[in-house]
Amino acid sequence: MDIQNTVLAMFFILSLQTLVLSSQSGSITPKPHQLLPSVAFPKAQHHENLQQRVCSYALTIKTSCSSPKRTRDYIGIYFGDVHKNEVSIPRIDVPASRSTSRAFEQCSRDTFNVQGSCVYGTCYLYLRRDGYDGWFPESVTVYENKNGRSYTFGYGVPLPNAAWRGFTHCPKYAAAKVKNDHS
């Protein structure tokens, strides 16, 4: 009988430890910032009435002169239009996606050629920085190659670590939808 009670007690203790440990883990929601926050990496979305095609873009990212000389931070970006057509790039600093050997140096301007869903007038853009160097963007310009239009989003403030920050310049009725979809 003692062995059976010992086994039951051990099982109870292990179950209790598992319950306590799992209740302590969870996600941390970033605090509000001057830039609009988005707390999760988005999945590309498309308006059902528009044909889903692949379009190419040139992204020009200007690094601030207040940024560290070099960075090892990982940089992600997503942008889209009023119809919720969206291009998501979780890590734009991967060497295969850039046109220069070293991206995001202090006072530099880097151009990335990317492909994704067709966006019809970029009206929102978010960046994410993961790392400890404190990379500091000055601005991001999206060139929509299909129509020759460009859209510039000025940052000029440091990005917090591990949080999406950006701008939504879509008409008000659509901006609420974009913000709600990524919160």
TrEMBL record:
In the UniProt record, the signal sequence range is 1-22
The UniProt keywords, alphabetically, are: Oxidoreductase, Peroxidase, Signal
UniProt xrefs under CDD domains: PLAT
Quote the Gene3D superfamilies the UniProt record gives. Answer: PLAT/LH2 domain
Q: Report whether Thylakoid shows up as a keyword of the record.
A: no
Coiled-coil ranges per the record?
A: none
Q: List the GO molecular function terms.
A: peroxidase activity
- Reply yes or no: does the keyword Acyltransferase apply: no
Q: Which PANTHER family match?
A: OS01G0172800 PROTEIN, PLAT DOMAIN-CONTAINING PROTEIN
Q: What is the protein name stated in its UniProt record? A: Peroxidase ATP17a-like protein
Organism encoding this protein: Allium sativum (Garlic)
